[in-house]
């Protein structure tokens, strides 16, 4: 039993050396940048919205509430898409 524990300890020590720290990955993300196009984000959000509309239809939700929910989701999708895909200003 003790041998297995030691092997696990050695494994985690060797594994820890190969995994970059969160600080290092944060710095590389800032340098490299994570860019997702707004179009790709909008397509994904549209698929989610269509799925939720279809689910509401199957649950026999009144049509006017489905439309209200879809309009709210479209607004939330645009706001979150712009926030997720905007380009950061560089410090001067």
Give structural notes.
With 92 residues, the protein is mainly α. It has two domains: 1-34, no CATH class; 35-92. Helix content is 78%, strand content 0%. The protein has four helices and no strands.
Keywords:
single chain; 92 residues; mainly alpha; 2 domains; 4 helices; 78% helix
Layout of strands and helices, then pairs:
Blueprint (H helix, E strand, L loop, with lengths): L1 H17 L3 H11 L5 H21 L4 H23 L7
Helix pairs in contact: 3-4
Radius of gyration: 23 Å
- Report the structural category: mainly alpha
Reported for the largest beta sheet, the result is: none
Could you tell me how far the N terminus lies from the C terminus, measured between alpha carbons in angstroms? 59 Å
Task: Tell me briefly what this model is.
With 92 residues, the chain is an all-alpha fold.
């Amino acid at each position: 039993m003790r041998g297995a524990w030691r092997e696990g300890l050695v494994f985690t020590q060797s594994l820890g050396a190969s995994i970059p720290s969160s600080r290092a990955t944060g710095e590389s993300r800032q340098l490299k940048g994570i860019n997702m196009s707004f179009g790709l984000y909008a397509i994904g959000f549209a698929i989610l919205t269509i799925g939720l509309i279809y689910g509401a239809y199957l649950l026999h939700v009144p049509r006017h509430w489905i439309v209200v929910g879809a309009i709210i989701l479209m607004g939330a999708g645009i706001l979150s898409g712009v926030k997720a895909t905007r380009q950061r200003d560089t410090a001067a």
